[in-house]
Design brief:
Strand order of the largest sheet of chain A: 2-3-1-9-10
Shape of chain A: flat
Number of strands of chain A: 18
Distance between the termini of chain A: 60 Å
Strand content of chain A: 5-15%
Strand content of chain B: 15-25%
Largest sheet of chain A: 5 strands, antiparallel
Radius of gyration of chain B: 19 Å
Distance between the termini of chain B: 57 Å
Oligomer: heterodimer
Order of helices and strands of chain B: HEHEEHEEEEEEHEEHHHH
Number of helices of chain B: 8
């Protein structure tokens, strides 16, 4: 009889990467469940699963698992009985043929009276769970979302981290299955230090409790709750933790214990960002502030050990914090011995990139560029130039050398300390943004101008010395920089002829190359990036093509507005027919020879021709201003009104008339109408509309 | 209270522990290196197909970390204890943890954790997956499974365990300054770290940060690169590898003089890596030929 019971599958590993632990844990549980479902060992309706994951294990407990696969019966219908056998009762050719195709003899087939046919029945006995599980485990392990697999021995097995044990329990017993040459057992390992001896799991349902006795909290959500609750109980103040910090702490522990450490009050004189950077990044502890948001001289530790002497742990962390904070204080003092503006001198001693000169050279180029960019960004030129002069000076400071992630931030501090205007200090801090795809953009006008100038200089320079990114390699993160430029222009609504600025920036490098060729290369690179950006924002591929086809100058903001207009168009009534009409218009014009000249109204014969021309002219007048100020959305609203005259025209008028003059007049009219649409985008490229009307 | 081993005793205890695990005791590489990984016993052995176990001390030079002997935690020269197991046994993590117990660290008292730290040496074209081992927040070891070295896949995989000895010693001796560490104590003398290294730290820092001629260094780098190419052509991978080590050290000196920006550093790293890859590939090719 096919009994059901609960199954535990646990893969024991060496410490799993905290960033992907939750993803892996959930994926493992889900995929194993699906694999068993596909193999007919579980019914989704009658089974449930729970995922457990800690730094050292991925596990799932699944209820309602059959011990044996249900037998599977395959049925194939053959010829009708009347046609399968002749009058003498011997098999006909049809019957023989069918038997052959099933790989059996006619005698092995079944004569089904109720069906009236010859049947082929194959009964496959269900496989037992153990064998199927080995296959399922191998498949799931291979399919897990692991960006980088590692090997750990003399064998070829690869996984996210070395696998050290396999615990599989079903109906109270170990199941004979395996993964990566490890044979499963009903034994698990609990907390490394609090419970070094292995534990026997007597039943899958007892897994979580068994581990708990071994000082392992197997459930991720429970661990996270424990940590959050313990952090909130700290009386020294409010512990600063976010989702990411909490998840990391839960992913790094099996038995979280929260402790509190201290550092000397004098370090509170350090900038907040410095202290937090040291605490979070270097020590992986949580800063604490009081109810007024003032940082406190203490921090919260999430340890993995319920120590016999917790003071030792606290002392340990404190002894790591102390010298780092002392170093930072030392750096801060020493750095300010040379005020920020005086550090410009040192920049001529630092090579920016081979053949691209020093940081001092870069600064000279950026200053020129930022002067040109300031008006477009509505930035005060003096502020922008001053920010440019100082923006790399903090790279010569000890603090930034020690903590490179503080570049810009220290620039701001040291600028303020040197009595520079606040706007300058802010721009210095902001010009590195966005550092990655989700990062905030510069908020100040000078910050935007400087960010654009700096990134542009790096991109054009590296292209000029043949260091452009390839398909797989982008060691200088030029894609990220180009995307940053695009995001600033689009999201901050800055209109700019980017090709022109690429040209200017490239020219400033004074490198002996064919500027024209490289400008095209770089422009194409940026166009790729903005296309990607559009696709990532769920614009469909054909909308992107349509909008980009009408591009005259490479102005990302303008391009974006066209894209928005095109996308809006696809959701309007008659979009489909208008797209079709546009295709038709351009197909006709492509196939025929015609004059690229204005329409000849005196040649119009039919009412529909005159009507279309009139409507088009009116539309042109109404949309002229809209297009001049790049309000493509409004212009689209006007253009779609042409759908009726266009449809009427195509219904009633034969464009390819035998009369040459008439034909020419009609083609010119279509050119005029098509041209109106083309001012915004090439609507003939639209393939999918969201709204048919 | 943890046992207060001298630095010397720490070295001997750890070396002996790993000798018991079947590691052969080697001596440090005689060229200036930034890490114990640069020793041919690690780097070149990682690239061939034979099993291998060794342990050795290695003095490491990191010019940028010099602090004129004024910082209690930073040195431009310090020691690593390197353990190589190729391939590693299944319970290697436990074996490592017992080594910590052998030097008096009680895991039921301290917070010992394996924190993801995927090690990469871009200059050697080597990378591996592993962890830094933290002792109550302080990194005391790097624990890595090499996947690639010199751009070549490692098969069998080499497990590298690197102990930061000064850090460990400071923790065990409860010293806040590395210079107060007791290196050795016997009937005749007490030798502290500052007796051995303080003056060198001061002098080297001055050279590294103020006096090293960057134009000369850049020329040296180019010359080592050229020599490496020649030696690869002449089919001498061991000597070619030495040029890689020299070049890498020269680059570290340039870095300490702040003569290179982030962008230029990337370019130097790529050049050194190319040299390392050629040497490693040649080494493996010749080893394979010799075996046949």
């Amino acid at each position: 009889m096919n009994s059901r019971d609960t199954l535990l599958v646990e893969i024991g590993t060496e410490e799993l990467p905290p960033d992907s632990l939750a993803l892996l844990g959930e994926a493992f549980a889900e995929q194993l469940f699906k694999a068993l479902e596909n193999a007919r060992f579980v019914h989704a309706a009658a089974s449930s699963r729970q995922a457990f994951y800690t730094p050292r294990r991925l596990a799932v407990v699944i209820s309602g698992v059959s011990a044996q696969q249900r037998d599977q019966v395959t049925l194939r219908k053959g010829p009708l009985l009347a046609q399968a056998f002749d009058a003498a009762g011997k098999p006909t050719a049809a019957a023989e043929g069918f038997a052959r195709s099933c790989g059996v003899s006619v005698r092995q087939l079944v004569r089904s009276e109720e069906n009236g046919r010859l049947l082929y029945q194959l009964r496959q006995a269900g496989a037992p769970l153990a064998a199927a599980l080995t296959t399922a485990l191998a498949d799931v392990a291979a399919a897990l979302p692991i960006p980088q697999r590692m090997r750990w021995g003399a064998h070829r097995h690869a996984f996210v981290r070395p696998v050290r044990w396999l615990c599989v329990v079903y109906a109270g017993r170990a199941l004979d299955c395996g993964l990566f040459d490890i044979v499963a057992d009903n034994i698990t390992c609990a907390h490394r230090f609090h419970c070094p001896q292995p534990l026997t799991v007597h039943h899958a349902n007892a897994y979580s409790d068994c581990l708990r006795r071994g000082k392992v909290v197997a459930d991720f959500v429970e661990r996270r709750r424990m940590i959050a609750a313990a952090l909130q109980k700290i009386s020294r103040g409010r512990v600063l933790f976010d989702e990411a910090g909490l998840n990391e702490a839960a992913a790094l522990t099996e038995y979280p214990q929260v402790l509190c450490g201290e550092f000397e009050t004098r370090f509170l004189a350090l900038p907040n960002e410095v202290v937090q950077c040291i605490l979070r990044r270097a020590l992986r502890v949580f800063p604490i502030e009081d109810q007024n948001g003032v940082l406190q001289p203490c921090f919260a530790i999430v340890s993995n050990t319920a120590s016999k002497n917790p003071e030792e742990i606290v002392c340990g962390y404190q002894r790591v914090a102390q010298p780092r904070l002392a170093d930072a204080a030392f750096f801060l003092d020493r750095d300010q011995e040379i005020p920020l503006p005086q550090r410009c001198r040192e920049l001529s001693g630092i090579v920016f990139a081979k053949k691209l000169g020093t940081l001092d050279d870069k600064l000279r180029r950026i200053i020129k560029t930022v002067r040109l960019l300031a008006p477009a960004c509505s930035a005060d030129e003096h502020i922008a130039v001053r920010s440019a002069q100082l923006c790399k000076c903090d790279l010569t400071t000890d603090m930034v050398r020690e903590y490179p992630e503080l570049e810009g931030i220290m620039g701001r501090h040291y600028a303020l300390a040197a009595q520079e205007p606040r706007a300058v200090a802010v721009a210095i801090a902001e010009h590195y943004r966005p550092r990655h795809a989700q990062d905030a953009l510069p908020a100040s006008a000078a910050g935007m101008a400087l960010a654009l100038a700096d990134k542009l200089d790096t991109v054009t320079g590296l292209f000029a010395v043949d260091q452009a990114p390839t398909g797989t390699k982008d060691p200088f993160a030029l894609r990220r920089k180009a995307l940053g430029i695009i995001r600033i222009l689009v999201e901050k609504a800055i209109a700019l002829d980017l090709r022109q600025f690429i040209c200017t920036s490239l020219h400033l490098h004074s490198i002996d190359i064919d500027d024209a060729v490289v400008v095209e290369q770089i422009t194409a690179f940026f166009i790729e990036r903005i296309k990607r950006y559009a696709l990532d924002h769920s614009y469909s591929g054909d909308c992107v093509v349509a909008a980009f086809s009408a591009m005259k100058t490479f102005d990302p903001l303008d391009l974006w507005r066209r894209l928005q207009a095109v996308e809006h168009f696809t959701r309007m009534p008659f979009a489909e027919s208008l797209a079709r009409s546009n295709k038709r218009i351009w197909n006709l014009l492509k196939r025929t020879s015609h004059c690229a000249a204005p329409p000849q109204p005196e040649q119009f014969v039919q009412a529909e021709e005159k009507h279309l021309f009139q409507a088009a002219q009116d539309c042109a007048v109404r949309t002229r201003d809209m297009i001049a100020r790049a309000d493509y959305l409004a212009a689209i609203g006007e253009l779609v009104k042409l759908h009726t005259p266009i449809d009427d025209f195509f219904d009633a008028v034969l464009v390819m008339s035998d009369d040459v003059q008439q034909r020419e007049a009609r083609l010119r009219l279509l050119l005029y109408v098509g041209g109106l649409f083309r001012q915004i985008a090439d609507f003939s490229k639209i393939a999918t509309v969201r709204n048919t009307g | 209270m943890t046992t207060q081993y001298t630095f010397q005793q720490l070295i001997l205890k750890l070396q002996n522990y790993w000798i018991e695990q079947g590691c052969t005791l080697l001596q440090p590489y005689d060229l200036p290196v930034g890490a114990a990984t640069f020793h041919p016993a690690t780097f070149l052995r990682a690239v061939d197909a034979e099993p291998w176990r060794c342990v050795y001390m290695q003095g490491c030079r990191r010019p940028t970390d010099g602090r004129y002997g004024k910082n209690p935690n930073r040195l431009q020269h310090y020691y690593q204890l390197q353990v190589i197991l190729k391939p590693p046994p299944a319970d290697i993590q436990n074996i490592y943890l017992r080594s910590l117990q052998a030097i008096g660290i009680n895991p039921e008292v301290h917070d010992i954790r394996f924190v993801e730290d995927n090690w990469e040496s871009p200059t050697l074209g080597a990378w591996g997956l592993g962890w830094e081992v933290q002792l109550s927040g302080m990194e005391i070891s790097q624990f890595t499974y090499f996947q690639q070295a010199g751009g070549l896949e490692c098969d069998p995989v080499t497990n590298e365990i690197t102990y930061g000895l000064e850090r460990l010693a400071m923790y065990l001796q409860q010293q806040d300054s590395v210079f107060n560490l007791i290196w050795d104590r016997n009937d005749h003398q007490v030798v502290r770290y500052h007796d051995l290294f303080l003056v060198a730290e001061q002098q080297q820092s001055r050279y590294n940060f103020q006096l090293a001629d960057t134009a000369v260094l850049m020329r040296h780098y180019d010359e080592h690169e050229k020599a490496c190419r020649m030696l690869v052509r002449e089919k001498l991978p061991m000597v070619a590898f030495e040029q890689v080590v020299f070049a890498s050290h020269v680059f570290n000196l340039l870095d300490a003089r702040h003569a290179v920006s982030a962008t230029e550093r990337q370019a130097y790293i790529l050049r050194t890596r190319r040299m390392a890859q050629h040497a490693a590939q040649l080494y493996r090719t010749l080893r394979d030929e010799a075996r046949r």
